[in-house]
Amino acid sequence: PESAASSLRTPIVAVLGHVDHGKTSLLDKVRGSAVIEGEAGAITQHIGATAVPLDVISGIAGDLVDPDDFDLPGLLFIDTPGHHSFTTLRSRGGALADIAILVVDVNDGFQPQTEEAIEILAQSQTPFIVAANKVDTVPGWNAEENAPIQKSLERQSDRVRGDVDEKLYEIIGQLSDKGFSADMYWRVQDFQNNVGVVPVSAMTGEGVPDLLTVMMGLSQRYMKEEMAIDVSGPGVGTVLEVKEEKGFGSTIDVVLYDGVVEEDDTIVVGSSGDPIVTDVRALLKPRPLAEIRTESRFEKVDRLKAASGIKIAAPDLDRAMSGAPVRVVRDREIDEVVEEVQAE
Ligand code: GTP
Ligand code: MG
Fold first, then answer.
1. What is the complex's ipTM, to 2 decimals?
2. I want to staple 81 with a disulfide (CB 3.0 to 4.6 A). Which of 44, 69, 103, 202 is the partner?
3. How far apart are CA 241 and CA 277, in angstroms?
4. Ligand 1: which of 20, 35, 85, 89 to mutate, most ligand atoms within 8 Å of CB?
């Protein structure tokens, strides 16, 4: 229902995992664009945010999702880089997230950055599911584009199904070694205490309906109260990137995870020195399904609420720092907000 959706915050979903295990490809499949092709060396160097509205999710999930069952507005996905040198970007993405997808290549299983991601999720107590990706690469796999995974598995020969099962149980075993009780997602009743494993292929789209269904279910069931937090208060977010933007000067790409930001708001932004106190000159919003990192045509908005990826143009932002907090002052004392930003 429209009214409920407008009062609930969009859950933030971080996509984490080892380099090349298919994080960007998976998101790419979901948003149907080709960000991956524009990436230098196919390594994601920066975090991007992508908003996917509920109607798109239910379109992809087909029979698995009844949009009437949900009053969340959609999901905000944050892609993170798997390359070992980007630990801070990964932990920033993990810490921001309400829920997460841990992408694991079924052939490679757990790798160093898989383990690192699990530790970030455990530390921040972020509920997550595992996308066991690249099932299409199992020799003899008989693909059916975009099919729900159980339907796909039924199509496979006994030998292929046996091979897939073996790989999946290896991942389940590795999760259990890390102290997580895990099982195939369709056997998991309680996603808060058990990790569901969803076999997927970012290439053929198989299992993607399941993945989105489980993410929506997880958000709706366990995140609801948090989602209903004050989405009308002063905005709070984290700086992902500081960028020069033609015609706007220095800007910051921000994931807004709470409250509202408005044009002309005074904001306080963390920097290497004293926090920056400045006035918002323009709020630049990527269109739904667009990737903030590659989107050049932004829509100027006068107001935006969490959760969203937003580009903020304001004077003095060149000193802002990736990973720093952003807080809107609104009716509060500036000094008090500056202190909060300093303490974060
Ligand atoms: P980083 O951002 O560098 O950490 O990598 P990533 O996890 O985003 O991986 P990416 O999506 O760039 O995929 C890496 C490679 O695996 C690309 O060549 C993809 O085409 C390929 N790939 C990803 N998913 C699948 C899949 O499900 N099946 C097959 N066959 N190939 C895949
Ligand atoms: Mg990537």
1. 0.99
2. 44
3. 18
4. 20
